[in-house]
Amino acid sequence: MTSPADDTFAPRPEPRAPRGFPDRRGADLAGERRLIAALAGVYERYGFEPLDTPAFEYADALGKFLPDADRPNEGVFALRDDDEQWMALRYDLTAPLARFAAENWQTLAKPYRRWAYGSVWRNEKPGPGRFRQFTQCDADTVGSDRPEADAEMVALAVEGLAAAGVPAGAAVMKISTRKLLDGLMEAHGIVDQAQRLTTLRAIDKFDRLGWAGVRDLLGKGRLDESGDFTRGAGLAQGAVNDIEVFLNAAAQGLSRQAVLKALADGKASATRDQGLSDLERIDQALTAMGVTDAQARFDPAVVRGLEYYTGAVFEAELVATDAKGQPLRLGSVGGGGRYDDLVARFTGERTPATGFSFGVSRLTVALQAMEWAGAGKAPRGPVVVLALDAEGMADFFAAAAELRAAGIAAEVYLGGSGMKAQMKYADRRLAPAVVILGGDERASGQVTIKDLDLGRALAAGVSDHDTWKSERPGQQTVPRVHLVEVVNGIVDA
Q1: Comparison of pLDDT for 361 and 97, the residue scoring more
Q2: Which enzyme class (predicted)?
Q3: Fold assignment, 26-204+245-374
Q4: DSSP string, 140-171
């Protein structure tokens, strides 16, 4: 019989991360941090104030994915607090903003302009490039009903993509307004809310499914390749035909003014006409800010799937070419729009708001995949001070501290291996250099510094091991007082 402390026969957990919750290391985190810094610079140049809200919100404050009042965990990760209230991890950064704005409205400068970044969580089926935990970076304006506020979101998204390192011509902002489709549905008597929402979701899949797939979803429904059936909107054929004409007109890649002219020829309604007026003002503002048709175009097929959008909607789509020069669509890396009803859930008063959100995790993956702006490269490691004997540990730590005081990342090797393994460790960390303070160096007041960056460069051209040993590329012994000067030169190079 084993004692409770004897776990010899206890089952061992399998080391595995939950699906959709990725582990991230140096290159991914460095790329994400660089990206957030670039976006933050754009947002703050536009005058947006940073805000951080908690990861958890009360479930009723989120107001989405919550069909089950007894256990609201569909779409979100929820738990009951000790006061029996349901809390859920935020699924985006906009719903917490609406709660914050409603709670602090009297003390805020209005319109309130804020930007934020952080992790969000969605209890959905994970897939390629689709995670249950990911990072977003948002900018929002609460308290302005001007279409120019929507145009500003588009302009800062365009500037943000460029700051992130996306090459010119590799991204496009697609803009529309829900008022166009609302007017079309009103003209055909589509008033049932569930039917309208199903229609919008079907149209939102136009880029991915093409007209054939959207037509099925507007009708009785669609059976996908996996055998799953999605129930359709059940529209009359006349409405389906008009939507086909509408989407085909939107897919021509015309200038913003040409799209406006084409849409003006459709069946008029008060809602549609207001949408066209909004787009006209957005176009004028974008033109004034220097945003070209190639950078931002009108595409009425963009509807956005979230239910709270009430007006302008927009998406950032990356495009590239493969080795054969064929178009390669990398999908949406951000989106947003106008949500004038969200704050009203708390206050009962309509409060206009508009915003844009970058999917930082997805954009980082795309940048790495295309190797844009050097993304995907492992970050440079610290300078490694080798620990060659126990007697010299104080000297090793003094050297590392001196380097760090000069702004150079440095560490002392703290494993138990010999010099060869320590060199291998430094190389695996992509250290720019190693510092050697052996007994001879310490006795003579010197230090040996090996330039690993230069060594890696030279290694590609050195095939003879004897030549490598005799040339000892990038290694030099200098007076100890010159440690920082020499290492700094290696790092800067």
Answers
A1: 97
A2: ligase
A3: BirA Bifunctional Protein; domain 2 (3.30.930)
A4: EEES---HHHHHHHHHHHHHHHHHHTPPTTSE
